[in-house]
Amino acid sequence: MTPITALIAEDEPLMRERLKEKLAETWPELSIVAEVADGDAALAAFDAHSPQVAFLDIRMPGRSGLDVAALIGGECHIVFVTAYDQYAVQAFETGAIDYLLKPVEADRLAATVERVRAKLASPPADLAHLLDDLRARLQGQAPPPRLRWIKAAVGKQVKLIAVGDIVYFQSDTKYTRVVLAQSEALIRTPLKDLIAELDPQQFWQIHRGTIVNASAIAGVLREDAEKQYVLLKGRAERLPVSRQFVHLFKQM
Fold it and tell me: Which of 76-80, 137-141, 170-174 has the lowest mean pLDDT?
């Protein structure tokens, strides 16, 4: 049977890798024929590979995901990937366009994959009207600012902590530990919500329960092919890296 082929266009490397890995788990027979970081490269990849499905980040350098969809939507089933749900969800919920919110969650992806599979037997939908609606909603809207400060409980006090000073975040029962060089605090915000607000170039998820500040990483300890640990500047603990995130350290 001829495999279904797909293109991923996402300018944030960690998000792109996360989507690819979760697609491999949810839709293992899907063949990712190209992974690109901007709209122009997405069009070139589409011309080269003619994939049946395209996962497009709405906001990318050069042409946006909307621009790319306008050019290839008649030949390809489109799934938008976006963090800007406040602008776009109403248009998406017509059902003609599938979408994923960042960070991509397994249950949401499974539902999207099921819908896309069902649509593959039919020609791609005409997206012209909906794309015009989305452009109108997004026009002039700046991306939401990255998280810069966190209010956290330290003993009986609530302190304002600069995000750049945080070494790592770690899930801890009902709370999230906020670990700094010389102290730590607790917040109630779960990791999955923090990921959406943190700068993905600065903060890397290395485990289901851990996000680390890349600037605080001293190195990586590889005990064997299955066990890797992040070593930190100025702190003695070793943070385990789960298998799905070892790609972050392949060049180290």
Answer: 137-141
